[in-house]
Amino acid sequence: MHPEHPAREQQAEAGAYPATPAVDPVVPGVPPGVYGIEANDPHSRLIDRSDVSGGDVAQITELMQAMGALREVEDRVSEASLEYMKLGKTDMRALHFLIVAENTAQTVTASSLAAHLGITSASTTKLLDRLERGGHLMRRPHPSDRRSQSIHITDETRTAAMETVGVQHSRRFHAAARLSPAEREVVTRFLRDTAVELEVGLDWGRGETSEGEVES
Fold it and tell me: What are the Basic and acidic residues biased-composition ranges (predicted)?
């Protein structure tokens, strides 16, 4: 709960949105401090902390620990969804794209799916063939282009995905709803800023892939 925001406490108690789950924030299998700044960079080789106070370092470390715990849980959710659906990460990304497209009345083609996934047309064809054989999607005549086909997720796969991984990921909304508008602005700015920082200098990790670019 948030004692500094009594109005939101009252909303939670009244059922306006779920209260913070009473769970241990420590993620199983993750040693305490594993994401800490001092533990990962004791000699300041990665980050010059000479002008950062000890209190600020401690607070930032707590934030990094929280982000690490979130990543661990998201990885567990992802692994559980892959195991349940018996599909690969790229397959799941494709199905999610089809669900969103259907929800927003957008037509998906092989080329638009390839652009979204960042894979070649040949790899996209293999992916679509595999998912179609598995009963996860259907190809239909394009509504306005005779030369193309539209791609659609099957009702069975949509339901299975929505009732499992969809429900699990939607719980993030509850956490966001428990924040005040001002807090959400700060978190949004932080996440966007972090994404930009992580993109800087990432060229070393962008290698060309061939057959391995699609995970089955």
Answer: 1-11
